[in-house]
Design brief:
The complex is a heterodimer of chains A (about 325) and B (about 850). With about 325 residues, chain A is mostly beta strands. Chain A contains 3 helices and 18 strands. Chain A has 2 domains: about 130 residues, Immunoglobulin-like (Sandwich); about 160 residues, no CATH class. The longest helix of chain A is centred in the N-terminal third of the chain and has 16 residues. The radius of gyration of chain A is 24 Å and the shape is globular. Chain A starts with a helix and ends in an 11-residue tail after the last strand. Chain B has about 850 residues and is mainly beta. Chain B contains 4 helices and 54 strands. Chain B has a 22-stranded antiparallel β-barrel. A 5-stranded mixed sheet of chain B has the order 13-20-21-16-17. In chain B, strands 1-2-4-3 form a 4-stranded mixed sheet, with no helix packed on it. The chains are: A mainly beta (about 325), B mainly beta (about 850). Chains A and B meet through helix 1, strand 1, strand 2, strand 3 and strand 12 of A and helix 4, strand 27, strand 28, strand 29 and strand 30 of B.
């Protein structure tokens, strides 16, 4: 909606006031480069990393060989360096830990600190099949999953979360039959991260929705879909510390050989700084270069002396598995 | 006094026993003689001889004591009230701020917002002068032997006024106790050049010192470093929330309906409250009690029509005014040429002002007022597609209807009652609604999807205001009120109906969902008292106090607001002034643009987590009006603002208002400056020149905005210079010009490139085409614009010259006025917005380019008006 109101504003301005764009020239603000610390880590994960770069007038520069120190609850946990801009973190973090990073490269220094939030508790998962229409008005079959979660720490203050979904679908690539029995079979697996959330108040943040948020609708409307790209939501919608997410996942296309499906729901409790950071990244969808009436998305940073985001989230998982494969080795076909 | 007793022996042949005794203070012009042959009692003889003297006596056993009589007290004269209404002689429209002055006693007053005056004068005969700008002064001889009521009729002046009558006008102007206060005349509004010839109240405020304007051509104003939601707009005493049309190109106030405007940027009278930075009090016309007349105007942006007259002469009158824009019709014609699916389209705004006035008696008057203003946009698309199914030709019909509307509706009822000659009362009940709604309907054959979205705020107000004039050196105003605010930030209802055909059977589903923002009520109670005092010939003091309480669920916020103003007459037309005010504000506007007035702007109240914002403002100044019709003033101010609300960095653009208090940060603001103004109000050439040197900053110490550092407010123009000139070239030609210059305000632009990291998204793709995968396969990074801190770049100075000419012609039954105007005469490309982009040349080298957006270039316009 906001984007279209700005289009409306430009239309009015163009009609009434002969507005104009003008190029002024090339600029270099000669600002001192700042150290960029980017890290979205997960508690209890062994594959965390930190990316270091330097800001620049027209492009960033990777920072190699910097000294990076990680502190957990005030104690030095590890000191690392790297010959690339990616610094692998071996330290493991738990909910409640106060994690601090200090990075130093030549004359550039920066630091950041964050407290790892508590994980949510997944109480139950239910599902129901639903039918929705896409923009071509073809019926699409979805499985709607109701995931009930609980976070008692949300009773005392607002908590922030991020949802991601990985749907792994295994289908039959090819198979051979001998004497009516499947002799050999190969499988093909693909991943999908898409989901729809038009029935979920927290994920849709009360924004106006079309039939579903799954497909982009031609923007002939004043109302547009604003995708919640990172599945961000807040505990403002919880009741007594509990909430039921409603997530729609497209059913795999019908195949006579059947399919197997493994869906992993990752619900991360994230620090407030990560929530607002990703909210701002989302707003880049509405920001168009050269579109002067577009509001400026200022991305917040929690890095002192530099910029970027340093965050550790705590993840809770819910997994749903369905095995509807009809073709397996040794299975009788006829 | 000591008495020196002198003894004299009286020749008293008859009775030698008495001795006459009296002191120096007794002057015997003739000796007291008692003849021996006089047989009368001594008392009788003394009464006769001391008659018509100031000597009294006392007879004791042996003495006659003479002493001076005590003087009888002089007669104390009783004060009576000379009171009544001042009105236009033709229309009987009450005149606000007319001067009523008694030169003999050097005392006077001005009419209040309803045209009523009351002066306490001692019994006697007086010459009283009643005057008002644009009218011939009236000299009235009054003989006060009791409270005297008089309706004073003033005739419109055919020549320019030459007399400025002194008065200690309490509210605005150089001679008032107050400072930073001004009255804007309807004539000045009509004379200030405006975009597409659309004379506008807010545009006429933009030339005042201390008022910063926003994007060129818009009505955005920042008063002494305050944001746009800190200005209180009152229409006949009822508050309006959104006063802009067309995103700020025009305002809700129609000039032809406007009678009087008072503007305060400090030294606020105690009867006003609820906003921090300014008060714009607009009063509309009551309607001509004598004759019918009206106005019709057609311009490039809109057409206006107003009509007024008596329903019953001298008793009841009406006033009706309306305007509508038609820019959308032109857009519709152009758009239809490009898109054959577009069935209809319109973009418009309209205003309607209506008022009914009824005079019950000299003591009672009733008023009913109505206002509605709307902005609207709608479009309808229809399409039909042929398809074949099972050999059969079918037609699919689809379409989309979209409608956006927002605006104010206002109702008020007022009763003016003269409780006694010295007490005037105004009792008012009012209702105000601001609403925005979007209705969207998509359909495909029998399936449809409808969504409704609305947000708004409703106020219900009851208030009483009393003016008390009993004491000559005190003008006391007091009163109180209650307002119930109902905030409804967002409510959204979706409904879709779809049918599915399967195995020859049709299944229809109907789904409905509703989500709502946090509706809340705020209850505001207030009481005030304000005394404008003449301490002596040289000193005037206004002491006011406003006590208020704002109650929201789970929390009540009480507050006391002192309002003090002091004026010292230094003589020779020079006056020194000082003031101190405290203001509180209980509602904020959540907006993503302070420059444009957007329908998506949400008004939200304070709650138990977010405190009211408040401001302390100190001001000192000098005014000088020694020369007739010329006024000079210099003021310095310092304003501290507390608990200001801003969206945190990154929080403003997504999501609803649910839990809005999580998305905002609370901080403070500081604003200070010096303002100079020279104004000429009589003669063929009138106008003003003003200069402001000021600074305004913000700071949010929790680090959520600009890392907690103090940063410049975007309306922080260090130097601002304004000129308004109105020249009456001939009897039928008026020339008007405005020119403003301001050093650049601040904006946020990208000054460097940075890296953003983000996880896998739910739509399967990536926002940024050039995103890289880094580290874990679930995380990506992309190089993009870094905007750093808020308001990190100072724009270039902006300046603009606007000219307009009015050609008047008196026709048989009407007056015709052609207005030709040109905005931005020398086509200066002001930097209304700035942004940077990264470019690559053919060799792959990258450059950062800066671009600017100018909202208004040279814009000529014309309009035609008939007054009948």
């Amino acid at each position: 909606m906001k984007r279209h109101i700005y289009i409306l504003a430009l239309a009015i301005a163009s009609l009434l006031a002969a507005s104009c764009d003008k190029e002024i020239g090339t600029v270099d603000f000669n600002e001192q480069p700042r150290l960029i610390i980017n890290s979205l880590m997960t508690a209890n994960d062994t594959a965390n990393f930190v990316e270091l770069h330097l800001t620049g007038n027209t492009e960033t520069k990777p920072v190699k060989g910097a000294q990076v120190r990680i502190f957990v609850n005030g104690s030095l946990s590890e000191e690392i360096t790297s010959d690339s801009s990616t610094y692998m973190i071996k330290s493991q973090f738990e909910s409640g830990d106060k994690v601090k990073i200090e990075a130093k490269a030549d004359k550039y220094e920066a630091s950041a600190e964050v407290v790892v939030p508590d994980t949510v508790e997944v109480l139950s998962i239910d599902s129901v099949e639903v039918v929705m229409y896409d923009k071509y008005h073809y019926a699409q079959h979805f499985m709607r999953y109701f995931i009930r979660i609980k976070d008692l720490s949300a009773l005392s203050e607002t908590k922030y979360y991020r949802l991601s979904v990985t749907q792994e679908v295994t289908t039959v690539g090819g198979y051979g039959v001998y004497d009516g029995i499947v002799d050999h079979v190969s499988y093909y697996t693909y991943l999908n991260h898409e989901y729809a959330y038009s029935s979920d108040i927290a994920l849709s943040e009360g924004e106006i929705k079309k039939e579903n948020n799954f497909e982009d609708i031609d923007d002939i409307d004043m109302v547009e879909n604003v995708f919640n790209y990172y599945g961000l939501f807040r505990s403002s919608y919880f009741k007594n510390g509990e909430y039921t997410l409603a997530i729609d996942i497209k059913e795999p296309y019908y195949r006579s050989e059947g399919y197997a499906e493994n869906i992993q729901f990752e619900i991360r409790s994230i620090p407030r700084s990560e929530y607002f950071y990703l909210q701002a990244i989302t707003s880049f969808q509405n920001y168009e270069e050269g579109y002067a009436l577009s509001p400026t998305p200022i991305v917040p940073s929690n890095v002192n002396g530099g910029t970027g985001i340093f965050s550790v989230s705590a993840m809770a998982k819910a997994v749903v598995t369905r095995d509807l494969l009809k073709i397996k080795k040794g299975a009788k076909i006829w | 006094m000591l008495m020196f007793l002198l003894s004299h022996t009286m020749s008293m042949a008859q009775d030698p026993k008495y001795t006459l005794v009296y002191g120096e203070e007794v002057e015997l012009k003739k000796p007291i003689v008692i003849a021996p042959s006089d047989k009368r009692p001594i008392k009788t003889i003394l009464d006769e001889q001391l008659k018509n003297t100031d000597i009294d006596y006392k007879i004791t056993a042996k003495h006659i004591l003479l002493f001076k009589k005590k003087p009888t007290p002089a007669t104390i004269k009783t004060n009576y009230q000379f009171h009544g209404y001042v009105m236009d002689s033709k229309s009987h429209e009450s005149l606000i701020g007319a001067n009523v002055y008694c030169p003999l006693l050097s005392t006077g007053c001005t009419t209040n917002a309803y045209g009523y005056f009351s002066i306490p004068l001692p019994e006697g005969e007086y010459d009283v002068t009643i005057s008002y700008m644009g009218y011939e002064p009236e000299h009235a001889k009054i003989k006060l032997s009791g409270n005297t009521f008089k309706n004073v009729m003033l005739n419109e002046s055919l020549k320019l006024p030459e007399v400025i009558v002194e008065s200690d006008r309490p509210d605005t102007g150089s001679r008032s106790t107050r400072m930073s206060a001004m009255t804007i005349s309807p004539q000045q509004i009509m004379s200030t050049p405006a975009i597409l010839g659309e004379a506008d109240v807010l545009k006429s405020l933009q030339i005042l010192p201390g008022v910063q304007q926003g994007m060129s051509g818009t009505n955005a104003i920042s008063v002494r470093g305050g944001s746009s939601d800190q200005n209180l707009y009152l229409l006949d005493g009822v508050m309006l929330y959104n006063v802009n049309h067309f995103l700020g190109m025009a305002s809700a106030f129609m000039p032809e309906a406007t009678k009087h405007i008072d503007f305060y940027s400090a030294s606020f009278p105690a009867r006003y409250g609820g906003r921090l930075s300014s008060i714009v009090d607009v009063r509309t016309k009551d309607g001509d009690m004598q004759n019918f007349h009206g106005l019709f105007s057609i311009g490039l942006l809109s057409s206006h029509l107003s009509f007024e007259g008596p329903i019953k002469k001298e008793r009841t009158s009406f006033f009706l005014s309306a305007r509508r824009s038609y820019a959308g019709w032109l857009m519709s014609i152009m758009a239809k040429q490009d898109d054959d699916q577009l069935k209809s389209m319109d973009l418009y705004f309209y205003d309607i002002n209506a008022k009914l006035s009824h005079k019950l008696s000299n003591n009672d008057r009733l008023y009913l007022g109505f206002y509605q203003g709307r902005d609207g946009f709608y479009e309808e698309f229809r399409s039909e597609n042929e398809r074949y199914y099972n050999g059969e030709s079918l037609t699919d019909k689809s379409g989309c209807d979209l409608s956006l509307k927002f605006g104010n509706t206002l109702l008020n009822a007022r009763w003016n009652h003269i409780f006694s000659p010295s007490v005037f009362g105004n009792i008012m009940v009012g209702y105000n609604q601001f609403k925005m709604y979007i209705n969207n309907k998509n359909f495909y054959n029998d399936d449809f999807f409808i969504s409704n979205y609305n947000s708004g705020v409703n106020d219900l107000t009851a208030q009483i205001d009393l003016d008390h004039h009993t004491f000559r050196n005190h003008h006391i105003k007091f009163g109180g009120g209650y307002t119930m605010h109902h905030f409804k930030p967002e409510t959204q209802t979706n409904r879709y109906t779809e049918s599915e055909v399967s195995d020859g059977a049709t299944t229809k589903t109907d789904n409905k969902s509703t989500s709502a923002g946090e509706e809340s009520d705020g209850h505001e109670f207030y009481a005030y008292i304000d005394d404008d005092m003449n301490l002596s010939d040289r000193w005037q003091f206004n002491a006011g106090l406003r006590a208020l309480m704002f109650s929201v669920p789970n929390k009540t916020y009480p507050a006391i607001e002192p309002r003090l103003s002091l004026c010292h007459n230094l003589g020779g037309g020079l006056r020194a002034k000082a003031s101190y005010s405290v203001m509180h504000q209980y509602a904020h506007m959540l907006t993503t643009s302070t420059q444009l007035s957007l329908p998506s702007d949400l008004w939200v109240p304070i709650n138990d987590k977010i405190k009211p914002i408040s401001a302390d403002q100190w001001a000192v100044g000098l005014t000088y009006d020694r020369w007739k019709g010329i006024e000079l003033q210099i003021e310095a101010y310092w304003k501290e603002m507390h608990n200001l609300i801003e969206y945190r960095d990154g929080a403003g653009f997504s999501g609803s208002s649910i839990g809005w208090s999580d998305k905002v940060s609370s901080g403070n603001g500081r604003s200070y400056g010096i303002e100079l103004m020279a104004r000429k109000s009589i003669g063929r050439t009138t106008g003003s020149v003003s200069y402001t040197l000021s600074k305004s900053t913000r700071q949010f110490s929790d680090g959520s905005i600009s890392n907690g550092e103090r940063y410049p407010f975007e309306f922080d123009h260090r130097h601002t210079f304004n000129i308004l000139a109105m020249f009456k070239a001939t009897k039928s030609i008026d020339l008007n010009a405005t020119w403003y210059f301001a050093t650049g305000g601040y904006t946020t632009i990208s000054t460097q490139q940075t890296k953003y990291i983000f996880p896998q998204q739910n739509n399967g793709g990536q926002i940024f085409n050039d995103a890289n995968q880094c580290g874990s396969s679930e995380l990506y990074d992309v190089e993009y614009y870094d905007f750093g801190k808020r308001n990190n770049y100072k724009m270039k100075p902006s300046h603009c010259l606007n000219l307009s000419v009015d050609f008047h012609k008196q026709l048989k039954h009407s007056e015709r006025i052609w207005n030709i105007s040109v905005m931005n005469v020398y086509n200066n490309k002001n930097q209304d917005m700035l942004y940077t982009e990264i470019y690559k040349d053919k060799s792959g080298r990258k450059f950062r380019k800066m671009k600017q957006f100018t909202l208004m270039t040279i814009v000529p316009s014309a309009s035609l008006t008939y007054k009948f």
